[in-house]
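User: Can you help me understand a structure? I only have the sequence.
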Amino acid sequence: MNTIAFIDTEIDAKTRKVLDIGSIRSDGNLYHKASLTEFIPFLLGTDYICGHNILNHDLKYIGQSLRQSELQLVGAIDTLHLSPLLFPTKPYHALLKDDKLQTEEVNNPLNDSIKARDLFYDEVSAFMRMDETLKQILYLLLWDKREFRSFFRFIGYKCVAQSPEPLIRSLFANEICEHADVATMLAQQPVELAYCLSLIHSFIHFKKIHSITPPWVLKNYPEVERLMLRLRNKPCISGCAYCNTALDIHKGLKRFFGFDTYRTYGGEPLQEKAVKAAVDNKSLLAIFPTGGGKSITFQVPALMSGDSANGLTIVISPLQSLMKDQVDNLEKNGITEAVTINGLLDPIERAKSFERVEDGSASILYISPESLRSKSIERLILGRKIVRFVIDEAHCFSAWGQDFRVDYLYIGDFIRNIQEKKNLEDGIPVSCFTATAKQKVIEDILQYFREKLSINLEVYSSKASRTNLTYKVFEKNDEEEKYQTVRDLIEEKNCPTIIYVSRTHRAYTLAERLVKDGFSARPYHGKMDAQEKTANQNAFIEGEVQIMVATSAFGMGVDKKDVGMVIHFEISDSLENYIQEAGRAGRDEKIVADCFVLFNEEDLSKHFILLNQTKLSIREIQQIWKAIKDITRFRSTVSNSALEIARKAGWDENVAEIETRVTTAIAALEDAGYLKRGQNMPRVFANSILCKNAQEAIEKINRSEKFQEPQKEKGVRIIKKLLSSKSRKQNTDEEAESRVDYISDDLGIVREEVINIITLLREEKILGDAKDLSAYIKRGEQINRSLSIVESYSKIERFLLPKMEEQEKTFHLKVLNEEAETDGCTDISIQKIKTILNFWAIKNWIKRKNLEYSKNHLVAVSLHPIELLRNKLEKRHELARFIIEYLYDKCNKQSTEADQTKEELLVEFSVLELKLAYESGLSLFKLNIEPDDVEDALFYLSRIEAIKIEGGFLVVYNRLTIDRIEQNNQKRYTKDDYEKLNQFYENKVQQIHIVGEYAKKMIEDYRSALQFVDDYFQLNYGSFLQRYFPGSKANTLKLKMTPTKFRQLFGELSPTQLNIINDNDSKYIAVAAGPGSGKTRVLVHKLASLLLMEDVKHEQLLMFTFSRAAVTEFKKRLHQLIGNAAYFVEIKTFHSYCFDLLGKVGSLEKSDDILKKTIEKIRNNEVEISHITKTVLVIDEAQDMNEDEYNLVKALMEVNEEMRVIAVGDDDQNIFEFRGSSSKYLESFIVNNQATRHELLENYRSKNNLVEYTNEFSKQIKHRLKSTDIFARQRDNGLLKVVRYHTNNLIIPMVDDILSTGLSGTTCVLTKTNDEALQIAGLLLKNKVQAKLIQSNEGFSLYHVQEIRYFINLLNLTDDVFVISNDAWEAAKKEIAYHFRSSNRLDLCMNLIRDFEQSNPKKKYKSDFDTFVRESKLEDFYNENGETVFVSTIHKAKGKEFDNVFMMLDNYNADSDEAKRVLYVGMTRAKRNLTIHLNTYLLDAPSKVLINKIENKEAYLAPNGISLHLSHKDVYLGYFEYVQTRIRNLVSGDTLIIKEEGCANSNGDLVLKFSQKTLDNLKCQIEKGYRLKEAKVNFIVYWHKEATDIEIKIILPELYLEKDE
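Assistant: Let's start by predicting it. Here is the structure, written out as tokens:
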């Protein structure tokens, strides 16, 4: 009798040293030592050695020693290779799992050798019981093969030498294809054939059991898949008994679905042809209409392959909900072989799906393109025979399709990767399906698979139209008309109906209204809660509800055959989508269904706007690439969350679908070769098992106080899983087996919980500690930097924590920010506050939510007592400081010479290591800490960016692995790279136009509309366009709006203005805009163009202006052009932007150094990057920039490499040099950036002679940017008069001139100084002229004006009010109009209210109104009233225009360029008539323009009266505190009684005292012969008393002094 020894070894893979040997001989003798020398004598007298994987593992290390010994071994038997032959049927042998021996122990070769013995004898027994013919076949195939020959010798089995082919043909008659080339298989792949035949034999005898070829066989013998295909899954051409039965597509259809025939399309058997092609293992593209049986076309071949070869068909679909619907629908038909793995499954459902794919009971797997990135999905697929990849919605491959998806472009790479890893010579077939595809899309799909996989797809295309559907389009003017039509149609047809809408909100409102009107309706949209969605869908399918109001998300995969009507409340965004959606009617071919569209051209505009909002622009991809370059600066492979990358790119976190947008941008960069997105593979491993066996580990878990009860059960499952898959044999999959995601998917435990349990297992020394965390420390970076970040955040946390309450509380972030700064948090920002609150929310300390109507407010509630949180916080701070010190110290200690050249050093560590280091530290007052505390502190350090930490438990937050390929930091993502996406978006624009054209044709001519659709899908795209959009009509297809909208926006602009609008290539644009040239109009239209035509997102557009009035004007005009989108555009003054950026409540009093602080913080990366990431910056009145404002622009340009800048200004109108403004900054911008220059030279404002005159005058200005004269659009002349005096007093003759001129239209008097303006206004009023002085509010904010404050108080804006209700607003308006009916400032207040209403017509946010008031100036609000003569300084009149302008230039010195520019600004305010009064020779130069020049030699005296406007410094402020009750009833314009020391109210009670300075001035005037004659209230304002919280009302009076006669 043969003797045999069963052996197993443990080897150190690195040193190749034998660590342990275990063996049992057939006589029962045991060996268990590490000595190979002692082992050889133990084997003496043994004929055979046997082990599991002995040939490729054990003998690799001990084989040479055995060969060189005196042993007389006959051979080695490997139980691994025998097991698939002898145990092919599920459940497989109890000792086996794939290629491993099942065990509950660690590192015990003796036990494993005993298991190998038990397995071997079971294998011998199984062989002996085997069908004799099969025994002979296996022997004849394998007797001389290395893996099997010793087995046959040992058991002494032989048979007569003969060709096994007849035996195979006989035993497997009618079970394999008669025409399979068995002879070649015998000659070339005998081992592979043996494995196939053993499995097929199992199929025959156990038909209901889904047995599979073990994954290790597929990996090591890849030809097994091809042979199985040839034997069982590839129909022969001439037919045979097996193929005619098992692979007959009609029998398959009947068997699985009960149908006798396949569907035909237009009489053509396309479905049958496509199924036949799939069963013939061909690759194909099928274009079948909605409801055309697409699913059955791939399900029949998939189920047939599952039956014949237990192959797996993988269906890739973008719609997760659709996958579940398909699986559920199959189950309703009694077919349970389909599973789905997607994000909607809970962990247990996911684990069940994994298990069913692994054990072979699933033959169809539905997954999303995103799942292809998962390492555990890849591993799952590699373990099965893949018969086909099915790709649904295949138009997503094409930029010409209606739904191009960049993540689809990875599918080909994934399939190729699977083929390579499986070593498959023949490619895996592919089936592509789509419901609608024009010829260009078909070409793209075919080309993609040719290039990626060298596959030629056979095309099966049906016509898009269905014969049982009738189409009709009704043109409707508005929503109400549409609704009435919907009701009429429902009442008339009375059948199951789908109403399609384009917005989720509309789905709800329309369904609600129908229900109120007595109809049975439900809403449905993609973002709806899954439970509600399913309930509504089921109610509709089962007939409980007749009407479904839905977005396009509804209907895919929904099998309801009796839908008799589909109504499109708004037309779809493409003909493809329309045909698909309309095709959900009449799935029962016996009924005729109606498809209606309620068309309004404005619906197309909504599609254009939505496209623009969702489009991923080239600049956004450039921003993501810049962020990735920054993240990968020191190492090329990184793990980050999509949100982190978005933040780094400067994207606003509130952008819809932000994570999808990031992954799409990364997919685009991957497709262009800049990076490779790695598989989502956590680096947390549950390896290094320290316990000897499962029992020891289980006992430790059960004894542990660290495990909670539910964790104990999961801990036991994890340990058993790890031990069962543990193998000391060399196995590349071992790492995967112990990886967190694999354990999670396999056991159905969420990843976070698996990581927690692994940490506990390490702490209990059941698992060895693994250094699975990495800290990246920059070379030369001081520990102090990291510590100071922690200290800074600690201060902020200590400030914030007491503010939290256990009931909801609303916070104003800007106020919080300022309070924190006052509290000593020097390094504070809103972003840091948000970071902390987000961290607290993630850790479940608080619950928080943003308020949709205010980005500056949020609501938070503490979920725990504050004292408890304070203790946790202090513990975390102490641990954070300790961890930083520990890691820096470790970094310094382990730094080698080689590290000196690295810019970033890597420190590897673990949670447990940090815990032990802290506990063994020298500190006297150590805290009791748990691993959770360490994880908290590490996560905290990572969130606040004190240290960059990756790996370990943080994998829960970092889902994206990115491997950077393009190392050149200068390389930018280019237009060529973007071409594919750009093509898609251009095509989407064309599709909207085309579907609009279809609607119009359907209204006019039904037949030609149907032909239009046929031609769209059947003709070459170019031919289609030539036929239906000939000549210039083709240009309309490029417009990103309807032609009507385009004419409305740009139809009336001049060619020069259009040039600026159309310049979307220049990165830097400077527009030199002359006075009256329509600058504001051009800018507003440019903003509209940027948003609607140039793909700029509203959050990435920033416009700077110099006044709140300009902000209001731009928003008002922009709203008129583009509607509500205007309110999302950031148009701000320089100061307002800076206040916002630094998180401060803006006011004029605080504005002194705000720009400098902002610039410093931008350059130090201390501001929220999303607030400074812009793609376009527009600067209005750019000539007025001062040094700080220009430096702010430069700072923004520095952080936005790709940002376009458009600067508009007129250097001739730079008149604010006194505040540092200079046109040199505009000039510097032009020169330094080589900006493209445009000039606006057409003056629309002024008469021809006025323009010519100001042109002549402007030539006196020495340094100018414009070289060409302005020209007037008006060809007629106005009045131009210059009066030169020989006297010093011009006020009286000036006023006389105004009084004697017959004025029509608006009039303004312009002066050099405020005092002159005041005197003229006073004199005009004395002469009964309705005059108004344009004043300024220097020294106080409008927020402090009594009338405005009263209005604000009426609104009752408490902390919890964010939106001002219309009722409260209107009530306050009525009350203020009544209360201040006699006040001179009522018109100011009403004008301010009116302007705010115009720029905020929809909603009035409290924060917006607050900012509006605080930033506004008095001169911003005046009514252009033809009855009123306005009086102003030239500076205040800039930007305004009047029909008649009178200028008084009393001793005006125009030597400097600035003085000339001031004069030029004044002159160019005039539209029709300009009169200049002066007393110098300033304008005596000869002129070509006809001027009415008057020489006036009369002497004029100064006016008898002088008006004075007193400011804060002119009154005794302290006195007002004591007379508040006396002031209570006073309003602006009230007469005051003059007293010696001040003024009194009508009761004679003193209400104000003059300051000493005013008293001295009045004394001086009395000496000149003046006396104080009148006093009245100019303003009543609130004054904040210094060093107190007290606000006091004070009076700023107007005094009138008159000369004694």
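Now, to help you interpret it: The chain has 63 helices and 52 strands. Confidence is low (pLDDT under 50) at residues 727-734. Let me know which part you'd like to focus on.
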